[in-house]
Amino acid sequence: MTERGGWFGAALVLVAVLTVLRLAVLALQPIDLFTDEAQYWLWGQSLDFGYYSKPPLIAWVIRVSVALGASDAPFWVRAPAPVLHGAAALILGAVAARLGGRRAALWTAAAYATLPFVSFGAHVISTDTVMAPFYAGALALVLRTAATRRATDGVAAGLVFGLAFLAKYAALYLVPGLVLAAVLSPAFRPGWRGAAWMAAAFALMAAPNLVWNLNHGMVTLAHTLENADWAPGGPSLSLAALAMFLASQVLVFGPLGALMLLGAPFRRLTRAEWALLALALPPLLAVSVQALLAGANANWAVTAYFAATPLVVMLAGRVWNSASLALNALVGVALMVLALAAPWPSIGERPVLERVLGRAYLSRQILALAKAEGLPVLASDRGILADLFYTGAGSGVTVWAPRRAGRAQNYYELTYPHPVAPAGPTLYIAATPPRCEGAVLQPLVTFDTTGGAYARASFAAYLLAPGCADVAD
């Protein structure tokens, strides 16, 4: 069975049309960068082998994109997203072609390109999106290595897997998945030499980030453990949190795909299909345990769906695949309409997309005041800091984060803490009045925060004397 088998041309046209459409929506949507997106952009201004909370590939990708566009506009920050997901769709098509033939390949490419988490991910730039083509590519190259037993294919698989790791550490779920898949199917057995080449190439690719972490007090690991939120006194089980996480996977993978995946263990599967299921299980099981112990975000198990997509396609018939594709495509269209129509619609007086509205507007008010007063800005809210650095790039305004006595709580506190002894007064941005030397400070200016992310807060600027800068700490 060949990898292409006549499917690639049709899949390429479908994915290309969808990618161009998504790029057009990105160019037209009136949506500010979210906190994480603005932070990733800032990382890209200072290239490194690691950052406070994530590995470095997303920063590198954004840096290349804004350089190609000669612009730091939100479009160029996000432009890689639909392109990377499009590439992942075609690569997963190749995986399906090798395991299930031409029909499975074309359906897999179309199915992945329209999955709800892909449709959402095409509107934002995230580590999941950057990881996607490399995780899919590692799967495809493992299959190729198993078929050819060539050292060059093993090295390529390890290098691409290393890039997935540099995008998001959750790529490591591939390791237990591949071990299980190799036990279940010869198609996933690269041989000991192939596995050794893969491991060596992966180690070479991952080493710079590991060294960076060692040189920075394992700050990324500490942040990851904080996100897991495991209580020092022992876990407290929450069936409600587990149920919420499992329900959220319907929104991530699509309702019909989730139903088919849920029923897969009870079907008569081929060895290759059992292997794909084994690849999907480690992240789903691990994150389900995490959800039970301390809660979990919906996207934490997204690596499951790179193998689950061809599996579901191979198990479903034409009618089921067509219905799933149509339903997921409707979700994608709805997301496009929401992005283009923002701030419409609203629930009550709150726009549905309020989290990505009004951020730049608040930053422009703060920056205008700072320039008028000739003062630096101090803020403790991570969202405000993220957009101040992005919107204020080139403005000449100095922005500081609090200086913590202990470990920094975010990238800004780690990299841009306020001086121990500021030379002059500072504008402090806060939602509640600070106290300094026993007195409650009065606001210099209260900002307009209506209609966006900060609509339920009342942020104001306070004038801090040099000796009062530590009130934010």
Could you walk me through the main structural features you see in this protein, from its secondary elements to its overall organization?
With 473 residues, the chain is mainly α. The protein has 2 domains: 8-341, no CATH class; 356-472, no CATH class. It is 61% helix and 5% strand. The protein contains 20 helices and 9 strands. It has helices at 8-28, 35-44, 57-69, 74-78, 80-100, 102-113, 116-121, 127-148, 151-167, 174-184, 191-215, 219-228, 239-253, 255-263, 271-294, 304-315, 318-341, 359-373, 382-391, 411-415; strands at residues 346-347, 350-351, 377-379, 399-400, 426-430, 435-436, 439-440, 445-446, 460-464. The chain has a 5-stranded mixed β-sheet, with helices on one face. Strands 1-2 form a two-stranded antiparallel sheet. Strands 6-7 form a two-stranded antiparallel ribbon. Helix 15 (271-294) crosses helix 16 (304-315). The longest helix is centred in the middle third of the chain and has 25 residues, at 191-215.
Number of domains: 2
> How many helices in DSSP terms?
20
* Uncertain stretches of 5 or more adjacent residues: none
Major sheet details: 5 strands, mixed
